[in-house]
Amino acid sequence: MDRLQKVIAQAGIASRRKAEQLIEEGKVKVNGKIVTELGTKVSASDKVEVEGIPVERERKVYYLFYKPRGVISAVEDDKGRKVVTDYFPFVEERIFPIGRLDYDTSGLMILTNDGEFANLLAHPRYKIEKTYVARVNGIPQRHLLKRLAAGVELEDGKTAPAKVKELSVDKKKGRALIEITIHEGRNRQVRRMFEAIGFQVQKLKRERFAFLHTKGLNAGDYRELTAHEVKQLRTLAETGSLR
Length: 243
Ligand code: URA
Description:
Layout: E1 2-3, H1 4-10, H2 16-24, E2 28-30, E3 33-34, E4 41-42, E5 48-50, E6 53-54, E7 62-67, E8 96-97, E9 105-112, H3 115-122, E10 130-136, H4 142-150, E11 153-154, E12 157-158, E13 163-170, E14 175-182, H5 189-196, E15 201-209, E16 212-213, E17 222-224, H6 227-239
Parallel strand pairs: 9-15
Antiparallel strand pairs: 1-4, 2-3, 2-5, 5-6, 7-9, 7-17, 8-9, 10-14, 10-15, 11-12, 13-14, 15-16
Bound molecules: uracil (URA).
Protein name: Pseudouridine synthase
InterPro entries: PsdUridine_s_RsuA/RluB/E/F_cat, PsdUridine_synth_cat_dom_sf, PsdUridine_synth_RsuA/RluA, PsdUridine_synth_RsuA/RluB/E/F, PsdUridine_synth_RsuA/RluB_CS, RsuA_PseudoU_synthase, S4_RNA-bd, S4_RNA-bd_sf
GO molecular function: RNA binding; rRNA pseudouridine synthase activity
């Protein structure tokens, strides 16, 4: 059961506030009867009309997408660049990405048409871990990686403790692959963290999002999340654990 104003807002007819206004003005009917009570809840089988026009109620969909580099994490781009929803030509629901990845960053994102779920994951009560693999220009010494893990000072404040692991070093090419797990989601955070210890990130991939990983997906691929995975993500965001 959802609140009437939410159903109208989710259908994209009006903002939640405008929807409330429409309800109060007597312009909304539920099963043929005018409803002016703001708290009214409706189920999927209730027929909602706004100014005589039936409200289409989309089924909620949830996708795990492996964003390639060179794609904007948005549903449209004013410069005409490729956007994540270009990879979903056969999905009719109006999906959008939760959170963002830089244009040059590849890796996992979730797309959905469920605004409430998106808010929950974008602003979880308990922070969700995201694991990145960064290729950096140079080979950071151990004490610098320890600094990264402890938290570095950025212009928007010190970063929370992170898990940091050196995966490999290429001495000939003078570069290293470092895995870093963070639970904050600041703009360009991983790139800025490495800059703070004196390294440039040349390539960045988000390899895990909570318990979800890229295994079985190539860049540009997506799959539907299972109902169980959606439930687990909700539980993680709300309680911080899967129990
Ligand atoms: N950190 C970054 O620097 N970029 C991203 O896209 C994600 C995390």
